[in-house]
Amino acid sequence: MADLSQLMQLSQQLQSRMTELQESLESKSISASAGGGMVTVTVDGKGQARRVQIDPTCVDPRDVEMLEDLVLAAMTEAQSKAQAEYEVEMKKAAGGLPLNLPGMPKLF
């Protein structure tokens, strides 16, 4: 029974860490640029877009496709950075616990 008690205690600690992590992710700000800085996208730690900045010199009404591609590239890069940071923080929060056990849903 001691093992079950320890497992429950570890579970409560992990739940507390995950709650703290979720709150911290919302306050993070991660940015990525495309086109040599012509387009910059900022996302929160969960990968949700928070800001898009576009250099006025790259706005050409005859080449909207280029601007669309730059926005998409910056968004994708910012979300990838946010995902990588999320995975690092999850591993820290887990404190070495094996979170990807057989039969359990994958957490990260």
Any key phrases for this structure?
three-stranded antiparallel sheet; 2 helices; Ybab, Chain: A; 108 residues; rod-shaped; alpha+beta
Describe what you observe in this structure.
Helices cover 53% and strands 15% of the residues. With 108 residues, the protein is α+β, with helices and mostly antiparallel strands. The protein has a single domain (2-94), classed as Ybab, Chain: A. A 3-stranded antiparallel beta sheet has the order 1-2-3. Strand 2 (39-43) and strand 3 form a beta hairpin. The two termini are 30 Å apart. The mean pLDDT is 82.
How would the blueprint of this fold be written?
Elements: H1 2-27, E1 30-34, E2 39-43, E3 49-54, H2 64-94
Antiparallel strand pairs: 1-2, 2-3
Helix pairs in contact: 1-2
In short:
By secondary structure, the chain is α+β, with helices and mostly antiparallel strands.
> Mean of residue pLDDT?
82
What is the fold-level CATH name, i.e. the topology? Ybab, Chain: A
Overall SS class? alpha+beta
| Biggest sheet strand line-up | 1-2-3
How far apart are the termini?
A: 30 Å
Main beta-sheet annotation: 3 strands, antiparallel
Q: Give the overall shape, derived from the CA principal axes.
A: rod-shaped
* CATH level-4 homologous superfamily: Nucleoid-associated protein YbaB-like domain
CATH architecture: 2-Layer Sandwich
SSE order, one letter for each helix or strand? HEEEH
Number of domains: 1
Helix content: 40-55%
Rounded radius of gyration (Å): 20 Å
Top-tier CATH class: Alpha Beta
Low-confidence stretches: none
Strand count: 3
Count of DSSP helices?
2
